[in-house]
Write a structure and sequence with these properties.
Oligomer: single chain
Membrane topology: Multi-pass membrane protein
Protein name: Neu5Ac permease
Low-confidence stretches: none
Subcellular location: Cell inner membrane
Order of helices and strands: HHHHHHHHHHHHHHHHHHHHHHHH
Number of strands: 0
Number of helices: 24
Largest sheet: none
Pfam family, one: DctM
Radius of gyration: 25 Å
Shape: globular
Strand content: under 5%
GO cellular component, one term: plasma membrane
Mean pLDDT: 83
């Protein structure tokens, strides 16, 4: 059977099976079997009693079936895949412990008196949680439990509160260590470290766009975010600023002390000597870094003792210490990756252990905490793995049938400008994202789209700057993640809506939630447009 007919059957079959509610993993596996039969043994369809010609039925360990099973085996035995349950376990511990609540209280103390401050606090908290675990669903649920009641109690506009929580809570898609980037890197054989680095600026750009939108919206219409009543004993103006400066100085001093100790360790071990064969410079840790590390520490100490004073600094620390555990976890996870200490998987394990030890130190560790966190990890990982197996099977079968080559020739044969080709892909990804889980999309669509993008003239991609050929896969991966960021809010199946609905007050309906999304979807599309217009923003740190 020709690949064009197979493609039509595949699309219609996928829509039908998903439409009747079949899980994506099973739907993909069924269609994979159908594709293999249509391509390599169609007599199984026309004359089932014959059991075909034997290519699929008599020789299961050879031919196309062997290639397919080998592809799935290789994917499932990837070492980096172990990081997925570790990051999920870390997120579950954060959600169940009081670390996130204390972080919210600290941010709320510093920013609640600003117009729209509670919404901004929610966004900042989401960024910190995204940088710790890279999980999306747990963030939306946690913010819905902590921030939504607070904003509604203060009289915030309901749509603003809902949109802030869901748009910010899905930032784990973009901000490293994103599980979406990890799976994309595995499927496309792209450096995950390069993907993390490339996603840094776009991820924080999107977060800043959300915060700017909140500030502008609340300044134009103050009734959207009424200011809370002053709390007794709250410091005013300059006093609060000095307290915050003292807190920041303490944190800066601690960070500089750790980096100075790290540099000394590397120096003693000879690991920062550029004359050693195979030397790779660490992000921080060269002896040339010592002057500015010591300089920052001296400036921070001078601010504590000469400007803020010890009493203000102590008060600032008391109100801000809830931010220290999240910053510590972020430093361990991302610092170990970019400092060249460990790989992605080991960093995920270190982060999970760090969160558990913090819970122990805070007196929150218990058998129940571990059990509930492990059960949630098992359920979430199981869902991802089954979808991965099913979608990888379907993608492999379609590849063996010649599907990617057929689609590439179809698109390139249309003789469209390069940017129109990419825009068409974006529309397809946005449409698929409204109906399908991101795991299925990255496994089914990306293996078809990425080779086409790599064949486009490099100088025709974007309008500002020119990508290097080795960075095309990284840029397209970040672009894909920005698409998936939109898909988490896209009706009718935007998962963020259902996550929030599970913890929202009864009077908030799904229609209300989707209505609250709309302006934030526009903000996300603006960020997507920036990546299309200025693709080299992804490579600024590479």
């Amino acid at each position: 059977m020709d690949v064009g007919t197979i493609s039509i059957v595949l699309v219609l079959g996928l829509l039908f099976l998903l439409g009747i509610g079949m899980p994506l993993g099973f739907a993909s596996a069924i269609l994979a079997a159908l594709v293999m039969i249509m391509k390599f043994e169609p007599t199984l369809l026309t004359d089932p009693a014959s059991f075909g010609t034997g290519l699929l039925t008599s020789n299961p360990g050879t031919g196309p079936l062997y290639l397919l099973t080998q592809k799935i085996f290789d994917l499932m035995t990837e070492y980096v895949l172990i990081s997925v349950p570790l990051f999920i376990f870390m997120a579950a511990l954060l959600e169940r412990s009081g670390i996130a609540k204390q972080m919210y209280d600290s941010l709320d103390f510093w920013l609640s008196r600003a117009r729209g401050g509670v919404a901004i606090v929610t966004s900042i908290m989401a960024v910190l949680m995204a940088a710790m675990s890279g999980i999306i669903g747990g963030e939306v649920v946690l913010l819905g439990l902590i921030a939504l009641p607070q904003m509604l109690r203060l009289g915030y506009n309901q749509n603003l509160a809902i949109g802030t929580i869901c748009a910010s809570g899905s930032l784990g898609t973009m901000i490293p260590p994103s599980i979406v980037l990890i799976i994309y890197g595995l499927i496309t054989e792209t450096s995950i470290k390069a993907l993390f680095t490339g996603a840094f600026i776009p991820g924080f750009m999107l977060a800043s766009f959300i915060m700017i939108y909140i500030i502008v919206r609340t300044q134009l219409d103050p009734s959207q975010a009424p200011l809370p009543e002053p709390r007794e004993g709250d410091p005013e103006g300059g006093e609060k600023l000095l307290m915050f400066g003292g807190f920041v100085s303490v944190v800066a001093t601690g960070i500089m002390a750790v980096l100075i100790a790290w540099t000394a360790f590397l120096t003693v071990m000879g690991r920062n000597d550029p004359n050693v064969e195979g030397f790779e410079a660490p992000l921080v840790g060269m002896t040339s870094d010592l002057p500015w590390l010591i300089g920052i520490a001296v400036i921070a100490l001078a601010f504590i003792f000469l400007v803020a004073g010890r009493q203000r600094t102590a008060s600032g620390w008391e109100h801000g210490k809830g931010l220290v555990p999240p910053l510590l976890v972020i430093g361990i996870v991302l610092g170990s990756i970019y400092g060249g200490v460990t790989g992605i998987t080991e960093a995920a394990g270190m982060g999970a252990v760090a969160v558990f030890l913090i819970a122990v130190f805070r007196g929150e560790a218990s058998v129940d905490l571990l059990w509930v966190s492990m059960m949630r990890t098992l359920r979430s990982t199981g869902t991802i793995i089954w979808v991965t197996i099913g979608a990888a099977t379907l993608a492999g079968a379609y590849t063996l049938a010649g599907g990617p080559t057929y689609i590439a020739q179809l698109i390139i044969g249309a003789d469209m400008p390069s940017m129109l080709v990419i825009l068409t892909m974006m529309v397809i990804l946005l449409f698929m994202g409204a109906f399908m889980d991101w795991v299925g999309i990255v496994l089914l669509i990306i293996p078809v789209f990425l080779p086409i993008v790599k064949r486009l003239p490099i100088d025709e991609i974007g309008f500002i700057g020119t990508l290097s050929p080795q960075h095309v896969a990284v840029w397209f991966g970040v672009l894909f993640c920005m698409n998936m960021q939109v898909s988490f809010l896209s009706p009718p199946f935007g998962p963020a809506a259902f996550y929030l609905k599970s913890v929202a007050p009864a009077h908030i309906s799904l229609t209300d939630i989707f209505r609250g999304f709309l302006p934030f979807i526009g903000v996300q599309l603006v960020a997507l447009a920036v990546l299309l217009i200025w693709p080299t923003i992804v490579t600024l740190l590479l």
